[in-house]
Write a structure and sequence with these properties.
There is one protein chain. Helices cover 0% and strands 39% of the residues. It is mostly beta strands. The strands form 7 sheets. Strands 1, 2, 6, 7, 8 and 9 form a 6-stranded antiparallel beta sheet that branches. A 4-stranded antiparallel beta sheet has the order 5-4-3-30, with no helix packed on it. A 4-stranded antiparallel beta sheet has the order 10-11-12-13, with no helix packed on it. Strand 23 and strand 24 form a beta hairpin.
Length: 385
């Protein structure tokens, strides 16, 4: 049911990337006049990938000039919902439904060439629900972690040429969180390449964490990427997880209204409570600043309204309220990223009046600007996993 794929092919519409400068920028290393570039093209820093009507699009950092990268929603297909830029900005990976319940992991280069590198055949009869491929880039952009793997309880480590480098085995008593997986960092590689964080339903024998029947909660374990060991993280049900560039890891806890920051040396974590009445939201609501000195968390609807909370390096909090359309019923923020210069944020949200889309706002909060109408999560070509 699982197969590696290596033939290169073209996807209709993708070749537009090669001729639209807003979609990609080229790194050119000239050895002399008239020489060809020695480095491959890369996507423009700050480019935004997003889904709309089941198709995958790419836009400039300000949301302008959107270009369709891949057509996902076709007869019998559910559309594209999972995608990620490689840290070196050379590739954009995405899951492409095949129309029969399976899915292919494709990677598209900045020049528009697409390669299918892994195939999942879908749910066999009686098998647990998976909900499509989950993927995460390695920090050096040479591999992806992919679930489901070739066997039950495995995560495949696949090279960009389609060859499988290794399989990581989940410990007994654990299973990957697949229900409402859009709310979690299902797979997330540490910046030093040594650990792969995995969202699981319970800590098994590693910790007392148990998400139970809560569809918005999960537990996290850390698999050594060389297969040598596995560690627990928090004993408490969690939401989203985000790695800092120095391999600190931050985790949201909705029930307690806290952010837990774990040092890479295994010393006790730092627990930072959010302001009274503020809870972390559901989704990709946690992000480190480009210089790793600050952390932003998006709150869910509360008595204080929707807001972003910046956590400074000394643990002090800087609320960044979201004005205008994000104060009414039905409004929410479910995805957050820093701007490339660290002076503001992009977030996915649904306002009570302005509809669903990707918005930008300054680091102090205020009135957001709607950049793009979209559905669900987005990703930014910011040079990080």
């Amino acid at each position: 049911m699982y197969a590696m794929r290596s033939p290169w092919r073209r996807v209709a519409g993708v070749s537009l990337l090669a001729i639209i400068l807003l979609a990609s920028a080229f790194l050119i290393a000239w050895a002399g006049a008239g020489q060809r570039p020695s480095l491959p093209p890369t996507f423009r820093p700050g480019s935004i990938a997003f889904a709309r009507d089941g198709d995958l699009f790419l836009a400039a950092p300000d949301g302008s000039a959107p270009v369709r990268v891949a057509q996902g929603r076709q007869p019998g297909r559910d559309g594209i919902g999972r995608f990620a830029f490689s840290p070196d900005r050379r590739y954009l990976a995405f899951g492409m439904p095949d129309g029969s319940g399976g899915e292919t992991l494709d990677i598209v280069s900045a020049d528009g060439t697409t390669n299918g590198i892994y195939t999942w055949g879908g749910h066999p009869p009686g098998a647990p629900f998976v909900g499509g491929l989950k993927m995460a880039w390695s920090p050096d952009s040479s591999r992806l972690a992919v679930f489901p793997g070739a066997a039950d309880g495995e995560i495949a480590i696949v090279r960009i040429d389609g060859a499988q480098a290794r399989a990581l085995k989940l410990p007994d008593g654990t299973a990957v969180s697949t229900s409402h997986a859009q709310f979690f960092a299902v797979l997330s590689w540490s910046p030093d390449s040594t650990w792969l964080a995995v969202a699981v339903k319970s800590g098994g024998d590693l910790s007392t964490c148990a998400a139970g029947n809560d569809p918005y909660g999960t537990c996290y374990i850390l698999l050594a990427t060389d297969g040598s060991t596995v560690e627990a993280t928090s004993d408490h049900p969690s939401g989203y997880l985000a790695w800092a560039p120095d391999s600190r890891v931050a985790i949201t806890h909705w029930a307690a209204g806290t952010i837990e920051i774990r040092p890479p040396d295994g010393s006790p974590p730092r627990v930072i409570p959010l302001p009274m009445g503020v809870k972390p939201g559901d989704g990709h609501v946690l992000a480190w600043s480009p210089d790793a000195t600050r952390l932003v968390v998006a709150s869910g609807p509360s008595t204080a309204g929707n807001m972003l909370v910046v956590i400074n390096g000394d643990g002090t909090l800087h609320p960044a309220p979201i004005d205008d359309h994000f104060t009414g019923n039905g409004s929410n923020v479910s995805d957050i990223a820093w701007s490339m210069d660290g002076q503001g944020f992009l977030f996915h949200g649904t306002s009570s009046e302005g509809g669903e889309g990707i918005w930008s706002i300054g680091v102090a909060g205020g009135s957001p600007t709607r950049l793009i109408g979209t559905e669900g999560a987005f990703d930014v070509a910011d040079g990080r996993p």
